[in-house]
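thread: overnight batch results

M.L. [08:02]
morning all. the overnight job finished for the chain we discussed friday. pasting input first so we're all looking at the same thing
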Amino acid sequence: MKPPVKFLLALDSVFVLSILLSGQLLGAGRRAVDNLVTNESGMLPIILSAPHGGRDAIPGVALRRGVGVAQFATGRDHNTGELAERIAAKLQERLGAKPFLVIANFDRKYVDANRPREGAYEAEEARPYYEAYHRALGEHCDHVRKLWGQGLLLDIHGQSAEAQAIFRGTDNLKSVTDLERRFGKTALSGGQSILGLLERSGYKVIPSNGDGEREQRYSGGYTTRTYGSHRGTGIDAIQLEFGTHLRSRANLERTANDVAGAIVIFAGEYLPLRARRTVSGE
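M.L. [08:03]
and the structure it wrote out:
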């Protein structure tokens, strides 16, 4: 016996409703992820990232415990997201174009965006947030490489070891292999370099520019190791660890202004600010 037509129509309605609800849930999930990752495209061969300044909880995800994870940490790098945003805004003011920007707004207690996948999160529900952050970073690096051929990634962090200092992290120059090959060490520590200019402005830079010291305490992390030019990415990556004093609310504006000013001078000397291809020509 064939089932009644009304019964079949009811089944069809339930099926259609389930499809619609699934789509709504997926859409809501994507919006939740997008809300916790700042992802802004730019028109400069410069990418700013900040993986550890987020304050937001991830709904339905338990705090990380770090069992068996090397160098496990959940501390927040206060105001580093805000610092990256202000540097980006000041670059736009001075150069008339925006850099690319990626910020993790989720708290490091749930996901550490500057770690390999296996040590970055524990709950499967946290995976989309980690992937969204690195998908954005990877796409921006690809975009910069296609349009300009080379670029600069500055990974913004915070440290409390020396409140007035900025630690440089390049995996002891590995992640700036292309920059050094093209221009020598002067591009990293000379008079027109970002760190050289900041040191001349009175900032304490560690290792000090021109003294040949190795990076020891903060030598770079997953971001510099993954996206740096030693990997054939065309992107020179530098981790900048700002002391607590430099990223306090009272000093944030000054720090951002000085860093942006140094980037502008560096870019004029070492970066191809005019794209070699247009977006439509990709």
